[in-house]
Amino acid sequence: MFKILLIEDDATLFNEIKERLTQWSYDVYGVSDFGRVIQEFASIQPDLVIIDIQLPKFDGFHWCRMIRSHSNVPILFLSSRDHPTDMVMSMQLGADGFIQKPFHFDVLIAKVQAILRRVYDYGTELTDIKNWNGAAVDFTKNTVSNEKGTVELTKNEMFILKLLIEKKNTIVSRTELINSLWDDERFVSDNTLTVNVNRLRKSLEKIGLGQWIETKVGQGYMAKEVTLP
């Protein structure tokens, strides 16, 4: 059973969210002191954090930074503010999702399920090392190695590479990549995907593999795989 830490100072909303999540068999915890969020986080050790941006004492961004200094646990932001910069900031801090208030509870549940499925399936099913064009792709360590060296990828870069390798020699659309990474394309710009793919290709170029990630203009991307002798 997954444990969820819900950091929300609106008692009514907190209870409503907790009730809905509990119906789906999640264990939901709150915080008793909004000045000691990191201590309560450490005590609970949740599988997912849902955090409001506007909180007493310190905002959600502050606590996200603190949590990220200790853990890579998935974080989902809630916000009642209509500022595009909030969404950008949440992504820059490594959040896994962003939901604008007011929201439908079915949307929240779907988002929570998608994040948990993506993060924890990603970490459990990919225990083997994949051989791709003569390189060892280690999904557990986020590294790609061959005789020219080893490069370490970010979580997003590795996730993109995984999706492309799974459908090697086939075009994967930009929409599919965006939905797989962030579950809902409204929460990420098209340019963000371009930046991530370019970073992935640049990292792979260090060990001579950048050429195997091809851009198909107007369609998407493809990881080519050749049969090596």
TrEMBL record:
Domain OmpR/PhoB-type, first and last residues per copy: 127-225
Start and end residues of each Response regulatory domain: 3-116
DNA-binding residue intervals: 127-225
Compartments, record wording: Cytoplasm
Transmembrane segments: none
Keyword Lipid metabolism: no
Alphabetized InterPro entries for the sequence: CheY-like_superfamily, OmpR/PhoB-type_DNA-bd, Sig_transdc_resp-reg_C-effctor, Sig_transdc_resp-reg_receiver, WalR-like, WH-like_DNA-bd_sf
Primary location recorded for the protein, binned into one broad class: cytoplasm
Entries under CDD domains matching the protein: REC_OmpR_NsrR-like, trans_reg_C
Keywords: Cytoplasm, DNA-binding, Phosphoprotein, Transcription, Transcription regulation, Two-component regulatory system
Name of the featured protein: Response regulator transcription factor
Modified residues (4-aspartylphosphate): 52
Species in which this protein is naturally found: Siminovitchia sediminis
